[in-house]
Design goal:
There is one protein chain. By secondary structure, this protein is α/β, with parallel strands linked by helices. It has a domain of 57 residues: 3-Layer(aba) Sandwich (Rossmann fold), CATH 3.40.50.300. The chain is 40% helix and 10% strand. It has a three-stranded parallel beta sheet with strand order 1-3-2, sandwiched between helices. Helix 3 links the parallel strand 2 and strand 3.
């Protein structure tokens, strides 16, 4: 069953160009600012959060080390519109 309120994107791009493409898409309003981004390592989560924060894109992380309470708190902020992006 597909939810008509959710868009899913997969973009194949060279590793060196991923961040530039992502920030460009946010800044050009090609991606709405209520997004979950999935990456393949905790290190990339932290890098992406720091980098997006530098471009004034409010971002939080969901990583394995966090408690369920912390994750729920972050998703609450996301649902209330207090943050724009969750990287996991």
């Amino acid at each position: 069953m597909t939810n008509k309120n959710i868009d899913e994107w997969k973009v194949l791009v060279d590793e060196d160009d991923k961040f530039l493409l992502l920030v460009s898409m946010f800044k050009l309003n090609l991606i709405p600012l209520k997004v979950l981004i999935f990456v393949n390592s905790v290190e990339k989560c932290y890098f992406l959060k720091i980098a997006l924060d530098c471009f004034a894109i409010s971002t939080e992380l969901i990583v394995d080390e966090q408690s369920i309470e912390t994750r729920e708190h972050i998703f609450g902020k996301f649902n209330r519109g207090e943050i724009d992006v969750i990287v996991t």
